């Protein structure tokens, strides 16, 4: 009996309790209804009468010891849980809410991808521009009314008057000034115009403008490039049509419509029963622009085009209020998935 007791004492002392499972194992081993102490109380019957008193005392002490250890660790583990030190790996995890790409980012990436596939590289430039890059190099003479076509936010910066760029054609000027043809580049970016905010207009929006300059580039190349784009973006059945237009930096200039993908050209509310939707402006780069940027217009020709990402997104996802793009309403934003 004596030996037995000493073994139990050291077992109680050495029992490691580091978590609730071990705490419960301890209770079952020593204090449970089939535990060691129960067994020891049973053995007391066999102890000779004269030793019974002392042996009984010792078993009682053992029980106190086991109970104290159990109570101590129970309290400690409970306080661990409160201080978050204890992680219950068996608990179900918190649901993860996964974000969604902004529709403008999705469409921007898609446009870039489409032009990347035919060799266009990306170029970027500053959003605060000088007059030269936003206007003068692009054949807008000073005081020319064409400057009013794009209501500009002007900024005073020291002597020079700067502006928030009204289009990313300014980036193309920078590219032409620094590269020798062939040039094949697209410039995605944010642009600013002084317009009252409504469902159909905003004081900032996003563009992708393209530029292709080489020897013998023709209007047919421009048309084919834009047809390729329309088919990649809106589907194999897409058609395009070009209407004569005017931009100071291109001659001739055109506006491009794509066949309405909703009614297939039959006529519906979205295309206002015309079967066509306007998507971009384009034209052959004016020789004055090439010369202003240091490119010999007798050797090289080229085309340029520019589209609004909001407009393409509106047609692709049927968004009819421009303000939704910048209001950050999660109910709007989480509806868009896919793309890259
Ligand atoms: N820069 C023009 C705009 O912002 C678009 C455009 C680009 C038109 C290139 C023709 C050629 O409206």
Structural account:
The protein is α+β, with helices and mostly antiparallel strands and about 350 residues long. The protein has 2 domains: about 1-85; about 105-335, BirA Bifunctional Protein, domain 2 (2-Layer Sandwich), CATH 3.30.930. It is built from 12 helices and 10 strands. The strands form 2 sheets. A 7-stranded mixed sheet has the order 1-5-6-10-9-8-7, with helices on both faces. α1 runs parallel beside α4, α2 (about 20-30) packs antiparallel against α4 (about 50-80) and α5 (about 105-115) crosses α10 (about 310-315). The protein is rod-shaped, with a radius of gyration of 39 Å. The two termini are about 75 Å apart. The model has no long low-confidence stretch (mean pLDDT about 90). Bound molecules: phenylalanine. Phenylalanine binds near residues 209, 250 and 282.
Low-confidence stretches: none
Radius of gyration: 39 Å
Helical fraction:
25-40%
Strand order of the largest sheet: 1-5-6-10-9-8-7
The CATH topology of the largest domain, please?
BirA Bifunctional Protein, domain 2
- What is the overall silhouette? rod-shaped
Q: What value does the average pLDDT take? A: 90
Topology as H/E string?
Answer: HHHHHEEHEEHEEHEEEHEHHH
What CATH architecture of the largest domain would you give? 2-Layer Sandwich
Q: Note the total helix count.
A: 12
Count of structural domains: 2
Strand content: 15-25%
């Amino acid at each position: 009996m004596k030996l037995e007791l000493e073994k139990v004492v050291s077992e109680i002392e050495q029992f490691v309790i580091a978590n609730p499972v071990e705490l419960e194992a301890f209770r079952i081993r020593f204090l449970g209804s089939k535990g060691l102490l129960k067994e020891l109380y049973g053995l007391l019957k066999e102890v000779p009468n004269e030793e019974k008193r002392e042996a009984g005392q010792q078993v009682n002490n053992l029980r106190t010891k086991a109970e104290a250890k159990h109570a101590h660790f129970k309290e400690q583990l409970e306080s661990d849980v409160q201080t978050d030190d204890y992680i219950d790996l068996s608990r179900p995890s918190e649901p993860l809410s996964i974000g969604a790409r902004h529709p403008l980012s999705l469409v921007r990436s898609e446009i870039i991808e489409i032009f990347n596939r035919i060799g266009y590289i990306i170029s970027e430039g500053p959003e605060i521009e000088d007059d030269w890059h936003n206007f003068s190099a692009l054949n807008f003479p000073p005081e020319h009314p064409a400057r009013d076509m794009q209501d500009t936010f002007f900024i005073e910066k020291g002597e020079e008057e700067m502006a928030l760029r009204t289009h990313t054609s300014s980036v193309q000027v920078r590219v032409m000034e620094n590269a020798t043809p062939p040039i094949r580049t697209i410039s995605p970016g944010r642009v600013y115009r002084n317009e009252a905010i409504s469902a159909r207009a905003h004081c900032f929006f996003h563009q992708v403008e393209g530029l292709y300059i080489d020897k013998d580039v023709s209007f047919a190349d421009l048309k084919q490039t834009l047809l390729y784009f329309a088919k990649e973006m809106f589907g194999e059945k897409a058609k395009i049509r070009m209407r004569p237009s005017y931009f100071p930096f291109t001659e001739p200039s055109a506006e491009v419509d794509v066949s309405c993908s909703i009614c297939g050209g039959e006529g519906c509310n979205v295309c206002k029963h015309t079967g066509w939707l306007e998507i971009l402006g384009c034209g052959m780069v004016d020789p004055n622009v090439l010369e202003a940027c240091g490119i010999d217009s007798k050797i090289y020709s080229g085309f340029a085009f520019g589209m609004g990402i909001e407009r393409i997104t509106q047609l692709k996802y049927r968004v009819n209020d421009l303000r939704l793009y910048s209001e950050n309403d999660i109910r709007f934003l989480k509806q868009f998935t896919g793309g890259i």
